[in-house]
Each structure stands twice: as C-alpha cells, then as structure tokens.
Amino acid sequence: MRVATGYTVIFLFVAIFIVVFLHVMDEAKSIRPFPAVLAEEIDVTDVELMNISYMYDTNGDLISEIAGEEKRKYLPHDEIPIMFKHAFLATEDRHFYDHQGLDMSSVVRAFVTNVQSQSIEQGASTITQQLARNLFLDHSQSYNRKLKEVLYAYQMEQEYSKEDILELYLNTIYFGNGVYGIETASEFYFDKPSQELAVNEIAFLTGIPANPTFYNPLTNFENTKQRQEWVLEKMTEYESISEEKKDSAIAAEVVLQVKDRVDQYPSYVTYIEYELKELIAENEGFTKRLTNAEGEERIEIERELQGRTMEWLRSGLKIETNLQPSIQDQVNHALSSHLGAREAEGTAVVVDHQNHNIVAVSGGKNYKKYDFHRGFQAYRQPGSAIKPLLSFAPYIEEHGASINSLVNGGRFCAQGYCPRNFGGASYGHVSLNHAFTHSINTAALRLAERTGLETAFSYLEPFSFSKVTEDDYSYPSVLGGLNQGVTPLELTRAYTTFSNNGIYTPPRGIHKVTDYDGNILLEWSHKETKMWSTETNEKMRVLLQNVIKEGTGRNASYGSHLAGGKTGTTNSYHDLWFVGYNEAYTTGVWIGKDQPGSIQPLSSEGTHLAVWRSIMSQIQ
C-alpha cells in the first residue's frame, strides 16, 4: 500500500513538475532583453529639426529668411568649430565620451544636493540627456521626467554615435530670441558664421543656453559676460585653452552685431512661396489629384499640400528666384507715383519673355507681406485684353486671314446677347487691323462666331487660366465678361507667346530649389506648347504694335517701335488693363478697386497706360 501510495505521489509530483515546467518555458519565450523592449517602446530615430529657408534674387543676394518658431541653420559635424565642441564639453559634460548617456558621479553629487535642499536644485544631465529632453520631452522639474530622460538618453547612445549626438546637441540648444543652434546664434548675435568667431565670442555664446533669459545678451549683457568668464575658466580646466589665452579672451571686448531678419520685396517673396507650393504639387502628384477632386476631398488634399509645403520649408531650403530687384523697385515706384492716395489699387507683372522668367510682381500699392495679393489672387474681368488670345489669333490661325481681311463691325446679336461698341458707334466692314486697333467689340464677336466658340476657347487651355471653365463658353466671354475672370499674372504670362514665335512656355519665378549644400531638390521643367504658327504670330505682333502707334494704347508709347500691347476696359470702368511687350519684357498692368466700382477718372487720364509706360521705358 505504501509503495503504491509512494508511486502515486511521485507520479503526481512529476506530472505537476512537467506542467509547471512547460508553463515556465512558455512564459520564458515571451521574455525579451531590456534593450529590445526599450528599443520598441522608445523611438529616437524620428528626429525632424526646423531649419531656416533662404530666398535669393537672380544676383544671388539674400532677400528673405523664412523661419518658423525656431530659427535654425543646421551645421554638419565636420563644419562645427572644434572650440565650440570643447566649450560645451568643458561646461556641460566632461565625461561625454566615457559614459552611455548617464554620468553616475554627477548623479550622486546632484542627488546629495537635492536631498539637502529638499528640492530639485541640480539635474546632473549629460549632453545626451539634455538632447533627449530637447527633442522628445518637456522641461518640467520632476523625477518622473528625469527617469524618462535617462531612458531616452540610454536609447540614443545605442542608436547614434557620439559625433552624431554632439552634432544634434549643438544644433538644437536654445540661445534665446528664437535662435537655435550655434550657427544661427553666431549669425544672429555677431553677424558672421561660427567658423569666424574668436574664443571670447565662442565662450560668450556658450554661456547663454544655461538660462537664455538671465543670460540674454540683448537685455542682460553683464550677466552673459560674467558667464563667459566662467566658461573660459572651465575650458582652461578642460585644457582646451591655456591660461594666457583665457586671460586674453576675458580682456577682449565683446561687440554684438545683431543681425535683423532679412525680409525684402514682400510682393515677390509672397508670390514665390505660393509658386513653391505649386512646384511641390507638381512634383509630388498633388496637381493630378486636385484635377478631379471636389468638395471635402479637395479641401483635404489642399490641406495635405499645405502641410507638405511647410515640411519642405522647415527642412531648410535655398530658393533661387528670378527676381530682378531694380525692376521690382521700378514697378513699386510706378504704382505708387501714379496711384498715390487715389481710391484704387493696382498691380503689375513683368516677365523676361526671352528666358521665361517672372522678374517682378506687385501685390498692390504699399503691399504688406501675406496681405491679399492682387498679382496672383485677384480674379478680374479682362475686358478687351482677352481678344488677342480668344478672338483674333484663333481666327487668323484657323482661316489664314491677313490683317487686311474684312469683318463686319455692325450690330451683333446672338443667343440674346447684343453688345454695343465703345461710345455706341456702328461700323460697316472694316479690316482686322482697324477692328483690333480700335477695339471694335462687334467685329471681335463675329470672328469668334466664325471660328466657333468651342474652337476659340480651346486656344486658352494651354494657358491654364485656373477659373476659366466650360461655363465661360459664351459670347460675353469673348469681350472679357468671364464668370470669374483671370489674374494679372495669368494674363501677362499668356501674352509672352507673342514674343516667342507663337510658342507658350509658362514663365516662372523659381529658378531652382536646393539644400544648404547646393544639391538640386526641385526645379520646373520647361514645357513648350505651339499655340499658333509663326505667320499668325507675326500678324498678331503687327496688330499689337498698331494699338500703341495709332489705337487705344497710344498713351503707352515711349518711342520704341517694337512695343506692342492691348488695352482692356470692363463695364462701368471697374477694371483697366494694359498688357504688352518690348524687345525683352512683357508687362501686364491692372488697375481697379478691390470691391469693384467705377474708376472712370483714371480711365480718362490713361493711368494704366502711364504705369505701363513708366515701367517699360526704364527696363528696355
């Protein structure tokens, strides 16, 4: 009996052992090393720093710095001055190259101090811990945050080399006044790159991050100077400089050369930021996605595009533009001098049609950055300024007509639309030249009728007038009565075709976009579209030149026999246009009120022609 009982007990023990063993083994399979768990829970690889983007004119001169909440110019490790590294290592983390993110001797010392004061007086943070806090955590004073800081620091030491950590640190520390990183601090406080700083200046900047408010050089210079001397002492102890060099640096005068943020030519810069979004949309497929999108879908795509544009700008770009400052200045001067305090607004766009470059654009008189931009945001009725593109050129191209071919200028009625000519005049048969030069409405309508509205409007498609749709395929549109209109930029770009043998290549303001090292990231591809034959184009140039010689644009003449253009006036004198060219440039001028209203006195004075003449006579 005892034997049987013994065997039973043994059997049960063995069975229980096997069950427990199997359970333990199963649990063991789910046990992973601490580093593996940490790597999964704490991601330190996704680091995106906000950088300044720079915009340049065609001469390579800086015209705008585009910065978000953080002004930063990132500096690679091999471009960081060695003395800056020594300064921060000496003052922040002497054992940086020896620890794995946590300096235990500093922790013990800080712990004793904090216990004695019964508060958190010392943090004992290594450079890696400070970097972890700056990138991933907040700056609250709590033991919970400190624990997270240690874990993040440890993980960063596993993922990054010491050089990478020091590089990130020196580009992320805060120097007050919205300035981040040593390069931006050097340029902001001393107006020169960090490579050109003397030891006394490096030590001066090194003292700021400890307390950017207390050591703010602009408000507390003496505090910063005292901190600089402490930094130099630590650098001497660290043996990065000698006693003699320390004394010399302390004695050397610190002269601040605070650099104001560069932000010139607001009209042009605002437009370029808009064009950058267009370029990104084209490059990343947003343009195709937006083509057929409507309603909420379109809003969501546009929101996504705006986000991508901001991501590009925050990455740190060099945007090379086609701005010619002297021409932009002339545009601003012409609008200001001719409009002055008049109750009307105006804009002008100038294109170098030989190189397809937008060299100047106005947002309006006395324009302020990011205000409503009348150059590319104002959709207005073009009046007779649309006739060359929608009526005359299509008719000549389709029918091979000469400028002396006849057209009836008498009363016209179609689909219930019976417009009048200017002043109520009625004509018999007139030549195309006479009809164009004197802007006879009924003649232009008959040409479009012969061509066919659908065919005539097909000539507008390559110009990408963004608000022109099939709903505009009507006779009023032939005279510029479009449902929503066109912008001065759109119309001026279209007119460049007349100076390029009938070939349209969309002019651009952006030459190219690069990173800080000059590697090309984005640039426009030049797409050519043959709009009409060279023969048709030459006939159109004669018509356009005759407008200035003897027609509605006579007051735009300034002596050049190669200048040509077309006027446009909308009903009740709400809009005045003149778009034309000389040998090198095509310029469009629009004058009107933001809330449409009559500007008849300006029409009588020919103000739009005077503005155009003022610009073109100075830039030919």
Q: What can you tell me about this protein's structure?
A:
The chain is α+β, with helices and mostly antiparallel strands and 620 residues long. Among the domains are: 2-31; 76-233, Biosynthetic peptidoglycan transglycosylase-like (Penicillin binding protein transpeptidase fold). The chain is built from 24 helices and 16 strands. The protein has helices at residues 2-30, 34-41, 82-92, 104-117, 127-136, 143-159, 162-172, 182-190, 199-206, 221-237, 243-251, 266-283, 286-291, 295-314, 325-339, 387-399, 432-437, 441-451, 453-458, 475-478, 488-495, 534-550, 600-605, 607-619, and strands at residues 53-56, 62-66, 71-72, 179-180, 318-321, 345-352, 357-361, 406-408, 429-431, 503-504, 510-514, 520-522, 529-530, 564-569, 575-581, 585-592. A 5-stranded mixed beta sheet has the order 2-1-5-11-12, covered by helices on one side. The longest helix is centred in the first third of the chain and has 29 residues, at 2-30. The N and C termini lie far apart (123 Å).
Primary descriptors:
620 residues, five-stranded mixed sheet
Corresponding CATH superfamily of the domain at 76-233: Biosynthetic peptidoglycan transglycosylase-like
Distance between the termini: 123 Å
CATH topology heading of the domain at 76-233: Penicillin binding protein transpeptidase fold
Largest sheet: 5 strands, mixed
SS class: alpha+beta
